[in-house]
User: Which sequence fits this backbone?
């Protein structure tokens, strides 16, 4: 029995401490591909960086991500938001609705090729807060869709 890419993403998200939700995703919001393009743009600059040499890098990435996600009201009042983890098939899987848990450890779990790589977007599609790896640092990127 083969596991679908969506099931793999759900498993990763669950292992991170987030709860995958079985609810519909709003239509008319940016696609996963559009979100990743905003993160990977040559004009993109991080709101924070964490050195890969930092012995507590994963904890600091999570701390920075939570802080910056809160500054753009990424999560709804109930802690819900959308998630995409980098990797083969992420575009086809699309957005995965999730719910925050105070015990979540995203950077250590939501990885592609060994590095933390994920984009989280508000349920209304207005804001994203992402983690990506660039040379010697982990970047936390915030973007607002107009």
Assistant:
């Amino acid at each position: 029995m083969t596991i679908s890419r969506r099931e793999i993403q759900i498993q990763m998200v669950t292992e991170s401490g987030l709860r995958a939700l079985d609810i519909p995703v709003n239509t008319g919001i940016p696609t996963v591909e559009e979100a990743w393009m905003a993160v990977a743009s040559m004009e993109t600059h991080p709101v924070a960086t964490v050195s890969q040499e930092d012995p507590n890098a994963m904890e600091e990435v999570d701390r920075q991500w939570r802080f910056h996600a809160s500054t753009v009201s990424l999560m709804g009042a109930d802690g819900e938001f959308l998630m995409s983890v980098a990797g083969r098939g992420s575009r086809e899987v699309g957005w995965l609705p999730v719910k925050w848990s105070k015990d979540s450890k995203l950077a250590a779990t939501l990885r592609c090729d060994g590095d933390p790589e994920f984009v989280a977007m508000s349920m209304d599609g207005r804001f994203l807060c992402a983690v990506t790896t660039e040379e010697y640092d982990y970047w936390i990127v915030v973007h607002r869709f107009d």
Summary: The chain has four helices and nine strands.
